[in-house]
Specification:
2 copies of one chain form a homodimer. The first copy, chain A, is of the alpha/beta class. Chain A folds into 2 domains: 298 residues, 3-Layer(aba) Sandwich (Aminopeptidase); 133 residues, Glucose Oxidase, domain 1, CATH 3.50.30. The first copy, chain A, is built from 15 helices and 14 strands. In chain A, strand 1 and strand 2 form a beta hairpin. The relative contact order of chain A is 0.17. At the A-B interface, helix 4 and helix 9 of A face helix 4 and helix 9 of B.
Chain lengths: 470, 470
Amino acid sequence: MTTKRRHILGFWAGAALLPQHLLAQDIPLWTESDLRQALALRDATPTDNLAYQLVDSLVTEVGSRPAGSAADPRAVEWALAKLKALGFSNVRADPVAVKAWRAGPVSVDITAPFAHRLVATALGNSVGTPAGGLEAEMAYYPDLASLKADTSDRAKSRIVFINQKTERSRDGSGYGGAVMARVAGAVEAARRGAVAVAIRSIGTDRDRLAHTGGMRYDTQLRQVPALAVSVPDADLIERLQRYGRPVVMRLNVQTETGLDATSHNVIAEVPGTDLSDEIVLLGAHLDSWHVGQGAIDDGVGVGIVCAAAKRLLDGGKPLRRTVRVVLFANEENGLSGATAYADQYKAVRHQLVGESDFGAGKVWRMRSKVHGDAVPALQQMARWLAPLGIEAGDNNGSPAPDAGVMVRRNQWPGIELTQDGTDYFDWHHTDNDTLDKINPDTLPQNVAAWSVVAWLASQSSQRFGQSPAA
Amino acid sequence: MTTKRRHILGFWAGAALLPQHLLAQDIPLWTESDLRQALALRDATPTDNLAYQLVDSLVTEVGSRPAGSAADPRAVEWALAKLKALGFSNVRADPVAVKAWRAGPVSVDITAPFAHRLVATALGNSVGTPAGGLEAEMAYYPDLASLKADTSDRAKSRIVFINQKTERSRDGSGYGGAVMARVAGAVEAARRGAVAVAIRSIGTDRDRLAHTGGMRYDTQLRQVPALAVSVPDADLIERLQRYGRPVVMRLNVQTETGLDATSHNVIAEVPGTDLSDEIVLLGAHLDSWHVGQGAIDDGVGVGIVCAAAKRLLDGGKPLRRTVRVVLFANEENGLSGATAYADQYKAVRHQLVGESDFGAGKVWRMRSKVHGDAVPALQQMARWLAPLGIEAGDNNGSPAPDAGVMVRRNQWPGIELTQDGTDYFDWHHTDNDTLDKINPDTLPQNVAAWSVVAWLASQSSQRFGQSPAA
């Protein structure tokens, strides 16, 4: 009784906040019943914490699960079994061809002016060194910009070191400002004749753990080994500079690249009714890097979107459109799951695509990337999220990576629920990405937000995008 | 001028705080000039930060330096060169015979019910497994007490796992309450027929880095391999328990034990005058474990005591007793430097022995362990430290490990300057023991405190201990 009364009061309180022009429009975006259900979904207080249970189960039973690794099919099996057990429909695994990468042993030593063994990791997709390793003098650059600006031959035959620092930020902008050192460092080093590139880990921590992550080669240039050292090791290299003597580094990096493998996008649905051939997509990625347990990246996203869809399934109200959970293959090393999905389902109208892939912090902002006509509808949706502490953002959203692929590739309407990422880059892509980094108390808010978004997108009388590109 | 006036005002303010019976005694403990100098030492504000410079230099030029390792003589050379360059007298290295231990590769895998590779490290002095490793079912114990209480044969032929947790505390009591799981775990496991022991790292962090540290064997029992897994890996093992299925662990630990080697206690002095054959000892240990850089344990202690002695050297006032800096060999794996020193200098009167070996936090308390007659003198010394934020403690002090050996073995008077250790066990004995964990701003307070203690101990008209044991 108490619960029911609160829902009704909450509904009217919410309605009172709506701009008059939205309330007054001829064809309402949502029925009163739909809005009432949005409130019920938002304010539900389940006694379990399904999102946390799911990520706990995934990382305990599978752990790290790079695309093409032995753990990858175990992750797919785990997901299929869980989604079926939760009662979803059309649970299936769509095959995705991947070019797998395997990281073998990595050792990095400073041999002069003083001997040190460093903590390092290969960057994703890096080639290896020759079997016996390589040794060369280091060419030090404080950041990527200084390397790009270098027109001398200083880097030639040397190991380029880029000491790019990552600033802490709530919205990930600090990462955005630093990550190109990782992505483009090998190209810039190779362009200058370097034999390898090493970078300061792209991370905001000071732990003796290196951060891996994706990087690119230019097919016109030599592919040089690329690795990251931990932040304290980068500090050490910085201190070695002041001695004014050559710093010599010895690397041995063993990797395998371009291995043909098959992974899978795992899909589950809450079927719609009158608009069941239109899809509201809640995404997360099932794969992880080889380090850590893939808890914050992105086991927790898997838990959040599955729990949000489960709330709709159990909500007792039929959906108009189909809500589809997609657990993408191989986000980390090439977004091949998202690309395959976008091609496979190109002709299917997608009402909205979103993804949870920024850790376990609370959502603090909603941004959209939809057709201009739908902006007022999205603004209205944001109003219903405000009591969760979520601000309304603009229509220049950056949906998380897999969703972003689809927004760009198929022009599907996208949504971004921006999480608080203040701590995310302390642990991102390292061995520290483990279950304990998730605060279980932050997950219900994420689940509530995604369930409201999916529900309102499903029920809206308005389409959020243009016709499908097909 | 300003500085001088503050010193004089400070002196009288301090004197006003002294208990009347101390001021009124017939033979003052210190002359007015000595007390004025104590204030000058305490309130000096040097523009450099010598303690930080020294630890920076040590960890940058040498890094980790276990007794008997290749880096050990480099550390001794570093110390001799620095102490000479700083202008100390009688700089020398006293040989110390050590039984060195070398950690080789360690791998720890869970093979059932789910495959996981864990982050682990061998405990100091542990034997290795057979070359091919060993695999056995795990016998789980939530803490050491439950293992000790187990009278069943559950641990027989198994790998004992002890999930002892370490509580965070300012004074290290949480570590004290947990560390016996590391020290005695192998004995308790062997007593019950186990084939190995693994423990949750004795640490307050949640990093994927394992904490090493000393452990013991009982010569009457089998020596079983002993290792620690990181805290998140121990959490994983705890979660695996709930599946109610056997947990199987595969270990491969390669070590070398009992290697004969020679290390050195490095010694430097500020010579005394009329009581120059009596020693005020400021200690720290030069060695470290093989992990990390040995920055907080105990490079920073080396920096602090050398800087404190340097302040006396530069203070412009002759010392009565000799202040001796001792950088001990091999504290970590057997305290052999301290034991050798205690035996070598047994016949020399030591007025006071102290050691900085609890990280880089500020000193918040002074405790003593001196002859009862000297307690009032130590209480009076504590008064002079109060403006540094240091409380007066009791006479049941626990001087840091090397100093503690001498207090127990030779009944030399000891002093403890208790540092804030709230964060110390986040990094202690791990790869995270790196320079960045030191806040340079906390070091001048440590240096000031040790310089005042050493000065007042040197100048006191009263001896703090009984006659030497010789």
